[in-house]
Each structure stands twice: as structure tokens, then as C-alpha cells.
Amino acid sequence: MKPLESNNFCLELEKRVKNTINDYELINDGDKVAVALSGGKDSVLVLHILNKLCRESDINFELLAITIDEGIKGYRENGIKSARKNASQLGVDYYELSLEDELGLTIDRASKFYKTACIPCGVFRRYLLNRTAYQLGSDKLATGHNLDDEVQSFLMSFARADVRRFSKFGPKQDRIHPKMVPRIKPLWIIPEKEVGKWAILQKVDVHLAECPYAHKSLRSRLKNYLNNLEENKPGTKMKMLDFFKKSIQVDKGEVKLYECQICGEPSSAVICKACEISDIIKKKY
Q1: Measuring CA to CA, which of 22, 63, 243, 283 is 20 to 30 A from 86?
Q2: Taking the domains of the chain in order of start, what are their residue ranges?
Q3: Domain covering 3-251 in this structure, CATH number
Q4: What gap in Å lies between CA 80 and CA 57, rounded to an integer?
């Protein structure tokens, strides 16, 4: 790709992300926005675009980054290095936590008791990201979920008939509990392939390796299936997203949440999933 074409591609991608932010009012004046920064291409793109938006747009908001070290040896270290480097280069306030320090366990340890480590990993990451964002006074938590992630998540929930998760579909979530920081997804309509292309063209330091536990998950199998569909018929993923937007009526009525009896964090049960899983692992380990 020629330099001019490369530059045009990156500018066009950034424009589409900014349009999503504006169209869905993901960020408002006075917001404090925390970016869930893994060091991977998606979260790094979100950090760079929000930092640029913070400096150049009419929206006046504060930006910070949160990184979680899940404890996956031989893999997580490189992502954390990328996260630190990008936050430092952009001058963004950076906060780093580890599962071991905060909860007394690691995903390497937890993986011994689950068919796929993605189950405890997802629970613990969401738990610490939300808790930390709330403690830091954040109004929004920006994640790197892209078009591929969104389609995969929706199909997984659909296949499991887990209609409760449909409420998480879309680029923006409402605040359903004082301690729950609403999530926003600036990359909602951006294909994963284009995010990778942006990172390479911009020569940004990102961690591109895949998690060693990912291949065991349903998401990984579904990802490969959708990629094959997309290759044979380009535009399939976007059409799926459009279908979900038009056809699925998500009930965003009142959701009953408790505060966990152990840690005090918001939960759909009297004991939150993070405390429940943590207790199981510590008893078995």
C-alpha cells in the first residue's frame, strides 16, 4: 500500500470511530473515561483515538487507562509492556493491577479447574476493571470490542438462549447500578482485520500474539467459522450486525442488582461471580 493510501485508510478508520462516538453520544462534556488497556491492537487503537479526540475535539473530557495482569506466564508480560509504552507516549494516566495482588490468584492457576480459562478470566477482568474504574471516579469504561467481537458475543448468547445478555449488545450501556460504570465500545462497527491493519500502518507498539488459552473456547471456534464466511462472502459480519440492530428488541427495563455480601460489589446474586469462582479455586488449589 502506498504512503498516501495508507494515510487515507487510517484517517478514514479514525473518522468512522469518531462518528460512532458522536452518533451514539458515547462521551459527554465533563466525562472521566477509563480505557481498558490490554496492550492488544483493539484497546491501543481506542486509547490513541480517544487521546486524539480529547486534544482536538470540542468535547471536554478526562482520559485514563487501566491494565489488568491476569497472570499468564510467557504471554501477558508483552501485552503489559505495550500498554505501559503507549500510555507513557501519549501522556495518559496509567493504572496497573494484577489478579494475584488483588484476588490472590492467577489465570494459570485457575485454568487447572476449568475446561476453558476464558470463564474465570472474563469474570475477574470485568470485576477488577469495573471496581477500579469506579474507585477512580470514571463515568465511562471504554473497551476495545470490535465488530467481530460483537457478532461473536451475540451469536454465543443466542445459541445459549441467554437473552439476559442481549442488554449488553450495542455501543453503549446504561448505568444500572451506582457502582457499575457504563461501558462504551468505540470500535463497534470496525472489523478486527482493519484494526490490525491500522496498527501495522501506524507502526504502533501492540501485542499481537493470541492468548494460549483462547483456542479452547467456543468464541475461538465461532471466530474461525465467521472468518471463513466473511472470506467467501465479504460483508457478512456487518450484515449480521445490521440484522441484530433491526430485528432484536432488547429489554432494557429495570435490572435487579444486589451488592455482594462478601466484597460489596454490584452483582445479580447475593454473592458475585468473582467471589464465587475465587472461593472455589482457592479451596481446590
Answers
A1: 22
A2: 3-251
A3: 3.40.50.620
A4: 29
Gap between the Cα atoms of 46 and 204, Å rounded: 12
